[in-house]
Amino acid sequence: MYLSAEQRKLVEDNHNLIYGFIHRHNLPVDEYYGVLAIGLCKAAHNFKVGKCTFGTYAEYMFKHELYVARYYDNKQPKTVNTIVIQADSEDEGNEFNLLDKVAITEDTKDTVCDEVVKDIIIEEFKSKLPDIKRKIFDLLIQEKKKKDIAEICGISKGRLSQIVTSLKNDFRRYLDANF
Questions:
Q1: Claim: this prediction has a pTM higher than 0.85
Q2: Which has the higher per-residue pLDDT, 68 or 163?
Q3: Is the pLDDT of residue 76 over 50?
Q4: Rounded to whole angstroms, what are the CA distances from 140 to 64, 66, 172, 175, 179?
Q5: How far is residue 76 CA from its own chain's centroid?
Q6: Which candidate among 19, 20, 88, 101 keeps its CA 20 to 30 Å from the CA of 153?
């Protein structure tokens, strides 16, 4: 990747964004500075004025590079750390693995970083949801039964099923688009 003079200046002027990200996510500087520096360079290379601020775009690229680094860091086969939406008895076998595409290692030394990546993915997805979907998403993660969720949200079980199906599709599209 070649950076123009303007893009190099953007990287130089904003390299402290790397330290801010590392600090907010409690990552070891010596291990992740290089990974995030690549993200900053990619952000400068691909940034389009007007869509968002450079800092916001760089943050997105940091998250992406962190995910990529964590995914390819370990040479052994990856396992998936999952969050499963529990189904009511009449919906047996209709469980949905929210992170079925997000590979997270089970290696104990990587647990903190894996949790950071998983939390970043979930929080970024949740931030894009309307209030009712966000509330339902949170309750599903807490493994509440559909009947209880419907009561808490004041909606019918039928409407809840529609929203859950929509959430599943939204999450899959989010993962496909971002990872």
A1: no
A2: 163
A3: no
A4: 25, 26, 16, 18, 23
A5: 22
A6: 101
Measure the CA angle with vertex 51, ends 7 and 102; round to 5°.
Answer: 90
Q: Are 79 and 99 within 8 A, CB to CB?
A: no
Name the pLDDT band for 115 (thresholds 50, 70, 90).
Answer: low
pLDDT band for position 79 (cuts 50, 70, 90): very low
* Nearest-angstrom CA–CA distance, 155 and 162: 11
Cβ-based neighbour number of residue 69 at 10 Å: 18
Residue ranges of the domains in the chain?
5-73, 84-178
